[in-house]
Design brief:
This protein has 11 helices and 4 strands. Helix 4 runs parallel beside helix 7. The structure holds glutathione.
């Protein structure tokens, strides 16, 4: 019996954030797949009233919102902490996690990767090039700012890998597969090198779209 159950859709970057955190901690978990068409219906709405993934189950404790989930996992699980103790480093981690939710996902990834990957692959729709073109100015702004905050540090919170790297890594790994990545990172070589470092981790190799789909199929 696994300690944790993660309700998610293969390919979800927020879902991957939770799965990669569990992998970083060496935890025992299973994936409970949610069909894309089942997000806004019961039984999923009883777990996540806004009809989104992921949702974590830990015994009788059910939790949604990715930031809350990964902070909870870091607190309850042994292993190296993914939250810096130093207040300034922790504040930088928190800042980047909020940039992820408010600016990188909203208006950038939920347009560009949705249109290029999720819509054709999961929902059978056609990519809207106009929507992608309209999202590019914001995408440049967000990636330039992430590059600025990263600077010459190995990770967003400094020398140690943190939850900010897991979260942004899951989002940017998707964006990096698209033709938009090259123009978006033309002046952000540090971000490209950082993404290589992050996706080379076993936790990322274990949680690719294909690996999560295989876990979902085995469920
Ligand atoms: N604030 C939520 C966002 C989760 C989210 O937006 N997940 C996407 C998949 S990556 C989703 O469920 N989208 C379904 C929809 O928008 O209807 C969290 O942090 O967990």
């Amino acid at each position: 019996m696994p300690d944790f159950i993660v309700h998610t859709i293969p390919g979800s970057p927020f879902g991957r954030t939770v799965l990669a955190t569990l992998e970083e901690k060496g935890a025992n978990y299973r994936v409970a797949p949610v069909a894309p068409g089942g997000l806004k219906t019961e039984p999923h709405l009883a777990r996540q009233p806004f009809g989104r993934v992921p949702v974590l189950e830990h015994g009788t404790f059910v939790l949604y919102e990715t930031q809350a989930i990964v902070r909870y996992l870091d607190r309850v699980l042994a292993g190296p902490s993914l939250m810096p103790a130093d207040p300034k480093s922790a504040a930088r981690m928190d800042q980047v996690m909020n940039i992820n939710d408010w600016y990188l996902f909203q208006g950038v990834n939920n347009v560009i990767t949705f249109q290029r990957i999720v819509l054709p692959r999961l929902l059978g729709g056609m990519t809207d090039e106009t929507a992608i073109a309209a999202a590019m100015p914001k995408a440049h702004q967000v990636l330039n700012e992430l590059s600025h905050l990263l600077g010459d540090q190995p990770y967003f919170a400094g020398s140690a890998f943190s939850l900010a790297d897991v979260m942004v890594g899951a989002q940017l790994d998707m964006l990096s597969q698209l033709p938009e990545w090259a123009p978006l990172t033309a002046t952000n070589a540090n971000l490209v090198a950082w993404l290589w470092r992050v996706t080379a981790r076993p936790s990322f190799a274990a949680t690719t779209w294909e690996r999560v789909a295989a876990m979902a199929q085995a469920a």
